[in-house]
Amino acid sequence: MPINPPALDDRSFDDLVSELVARIPAHTPEWTHPRAGDPGRTLIELFAWLGDTILYRANLIPERQRLAFLRLLGMPLKPAVPARGIVGLQVDDERDPKAVDVPPRALIEKPVPFSTANFVTAYPLLGRAYIKRALTADEEKTFNALLPDLTAVYRLEGQQPAGYMTTEIFENGAMNPAGVDFVADTVDQSLWIALMAPSAKTKAAARAALDKGADGAPRAMNVGVALAYDVPGLTDDIGSRARIPVIWEMSTGQLPANTAGAPTMLVLEELENTTQGYYRHGIVRLGLPAISQIGAPGNDPRENLGAGVGDTPPRLDAPADAERLVAWLRLRVRPDFPVSSLKLSWIGINAVEIEQQEDLPSRAVGTSDGGSDQSFDLGTVSKGSVDAATLRIEVRDPVAGNAPWVGVDDLGAWGPLDQVYRLDPEAGTISFGDGVHGRVPSAGSQVIARGLRVGGGRAGNQAPGSIAKLDSLIDLVTRNRRKPDKPLKVVQALPTRGGSDSETIVEAERRIPGYFRHRDRAVTVDDYRALAKEAPGVSVARVEVLPRFKPHERQGDIPGVVSVMVLPAKATQDFTAPYPRADRPLLETVHAFLDLRRPLATELYAIGCVYKPLGVSVAVQISDGFPREQVLGNVRIALRRHLWPLPLGLDGSAGDWAASRAANAPSDGGYPLGRPLTDRELEVVAARVPGVGGVSAVRLFELSGGKFREVAGAGKAVSTFTLEPFELPELTTLLVVEGVDAPASLDSPFGPASGTGGNTVAVPIVPDVC
Length: 770
Hints:
By secondary structure, the chain is an alpha+beta fold.
């Protein structure tokens, strides 16, 4: 039988009124007619209503008790996760352009509090990225016609010129999600950043800002790098990726001896690099040379014939841009490292990482009474969850003296003299031991909290352009806040991501069955599935576990191997291609989370799904009385929903997938992984649509040689669209028509052609302008 907690008191409002009325003859016999509307009867109904409210609350399990149960289970609510991102700082003062040093923990108040994570110097410079783009076929024809003259002008006898177009990427500082490949799509495998003053009048002052600081120390410049995250294939190793060694250089302005010679470029030292080898977003801090060594070669061919030729910086043909140019930064992969592609979605100077947290001043959170199991509120609940990494608890004990105490996860594992405490980051509380497990602060001890950083939540996931101004700096000595010396604008080209709200009680209660099953250890298939969805800072819609499957070899039955396939949640599910694909940050996060919980001898892989392109054509007959376009549209939606890889909502719509499936369900929903698809199956789906009177034979098409070709057996026997165990169908083309014969072909070529770049001596081509 089901477990239904009994009601402590099942009397209703009417029962209470009847009981009170029945007591009238015994207590007030003179009241002979307690009719409705009588003042006495109204009082009876009022007290019955109050009693009914009390009984309702008595029959509930109070929130306090539910929290106590979770605490007994060792399952505190998960804290909020702060969003993170990269922004650029721009000095907003053209009259007196000077560099502004911004130490860590600078505050951005709106739209939600953010703080900087790195030291950055904001220079009065703009960074514009350029590449030497390889020529198209039409441009190549024009270049070949001019080749003899160019060879003579630039004295390139015996060398092979390669024409290029100076092309600005990330115009107006905006990101390009698809990315720009500065290795494969350029003639010199380099990316150039032009450091420009706000105007030609401020060029001298902007250049002077690159000189040594007030303390005489050399300057450094932060460059933000955002990679265009690709969709990893099954052969990619998520968890350990090769670091890419690169070279950063700055131009000096000194000209080469001849037009094909290399200019004088100074190699810059990387003082800090948070990109972890250029495979994730981060900041590169570059040490700058002396001001006397910083410059840019001229762009006017009449004064500098070799402008833009060979390994010189790209030639800027716009006079207004050339007049503002201070110097060039160059990024290239080290020549001895073999790499064929490196895509960036954005790059910018004066960059700094930000996180959705703010610093709170040190505070006294309470005084010990000498009792066991004391708990103190840090007073941070209204501002978000507490960052355990920065929190420091100091106890001013009149007996043992002042000393910092250590934060631990489990007080029960410590002895009576250990000065430890336990933090609940979601609730913003700290707890001390009972004298047997963890020391008790002596009576009268003052508890001080330092290094408080709080924040987190989905509100921190801001679109580009949402953050506009840096509000205050923090003095690293006095810890006081002050306004920056110059107004600092925030240039946000990238969205901030990774923020998630703290867990609710209902969500925590849903975790209890899974927690008892896996105990935070990944052993069974259900364990991997449940834990993958708990990875912090990511949104996972579907998880498939493939035991004994090694993705590099694409074969199963290999002992000791577990592959976890992850599909991300999609904000708007319109059932159309492209289908959701896991990018590298998602897979890395899931892999890192599961890697700490897997058995020691298990070989773990986090992989994305492999989609096999599918084309479908179908002809239907429409019943009388039904609108034609509506029926055909509903057939399209039904077929797309049937093949959609993510779980659907309870009502069959693409809604709240989390509410429609429990965390321990044997399957997350969506089209089954690796299951072959037949034309008969889709006929049934189309026939169930209201208004469809009949369905002709469905035709299935698979990609072959860049075009869709019909699957064998269509129209005669059951045609089957086969899938590997790790594949899902991706419905890229769908034709639904009215009639008796489905279209026999899909005229839909697949995929654009790719070009190649040139090499040898790069020669600039002046673009045609009107």
